[in-house]
């Protein structure tokens, strides 16, 4: 069964990606992947219309409709995937997504550890602080030397561009079946109609080149993320996930050469479908997003794989979010930037946790008529950045807050004014109070003791709060900071 490409296209997304995918991809055939397919006509049916551009053998081309002929041709170039049985791929997408989820956890852990090591190491820390261009040049030189086509790069398909890598990995043919031809030889130049040959090596086979690619790119991507300069991160991760899914698909096709029996028949395994699911699952689990599935659909121009791809993304995300923060959150943690982690517990009981259960009730406040000695005692005994100001110690009605810097300035002013008195042996005057000498700022946001943990978490995250006071009928009863919100595990 041949799937007709969906004409719904998101032009802004394709323009943003600038990712022309070759329309000359071979379609899935028999187990030997040698069957040829005629190209698709502009109306979506197969045929041999002379108005179409010439297509090579074994092509499944997606050509634009006549209403959009004025658009650049690369906007319509998409890989054509063939899914013989969506239910079969859906059943086995869990294995691909589980592998992607586990590998993404290892990748995120290693990336966060290595980024921290680079910042702690004396030599690399000095380079990052004083010679950022030099550090970037050294990293780029190392990576380019490893991927040199005449060296180790010959086992990593390094002659292919990023576009060609993704195009080849989404190929419908089964490489392990094609590689059984003993007369195969890698061409001197890249053959755009047989990109899979760049992955073929008679010494280590297709599985060896994919394994070398995954192993080398694993730490090479980690090293590249330490460069202090803007660089594309998503597409390399997307391609890495496609290679991971391709390896799983090729392995499944090798173990089940006759296909998998389902629904009373036998369905051949298409490794390209596994590559598509792996690309969306791995990139989604690394970034903790689900929109990578939409990107996969827009890239292929069809939604026949919607169930296995979405299932793979959901499973991989569940595994990654359970054990590791996302790539972006991990970078924030290593750089010690303000960060509020997600609430780990998602069961229904976490919504019953209220502010009064985790707020800090041991806090210091100042009455508005606080004297010099009271302010001095408060500043020297605590290190809070701000203090609540109340009307008096009995009612503790919140009037506002005052910064620690204001109190220190007040103490310094009073101390300078008391120097003449100390020189004459007199007691310094401390008649001035807090309300008459310092600017008290109003409190724009107050928390209630009955607010849920999730509500407080959302407020801190959206408003970028560092600290908030909890009041009950105007009386200050507690303080909540990021430490309390981040450290609470319901």
TrEMBL record:
Q: For this UniProt entry, what is the primary localization, expressed as one broad class?
A: membrane
User: InterPro entries, alphabetically?
Assistant: CBS_dom (IPR000644), CBS_dom_sf (IPR046342), Cl-channel_core (IPR014743), Cl_channel_volt-gated (IPR050970), ClC (IPR001807)
- Its signal peptide is 1-24
Task: Tell me what topology the record assigns in the membrane.
Answer: Multi-pass membrane protein
GO CC aspect terms: chloride channel complex; plasma membrane
Do you know which PROSITE patterns this protein is assigned to? CBS
CBS domain: from which residue to which, for each copy? 359-418
Question: What are the boundaries of the region Disordered?
Answer: 28-53
TM spans, by residue? 134-157, 204-225, 237-256, 276-296, 303-320
List compositional bias (Low complexity) regions by residue number.
Answer: 28-38
Q: What is the top-level taxon of the source organism?
A: Eukaryota
UniProt subcellular location: Membrane
Q: Which GO terms describe its molecular function?
A: voltage-gated chloride channel activity
Its keywords, alphabetically, are:
CBS domain, Chloride, Chloride channel, Ion channel, Ion transport, Membrane, Repeat, Signal, Transmembrane, Transmembrane helix, Transport
Matching CDD domains:
CBS_pair_voltage-gated_CLC_euk_bac
- Which family does the record claim for this protein? Belongs to the chloride channel (TC 2.A.49) family.
The molecule here is called Chloride channel protein
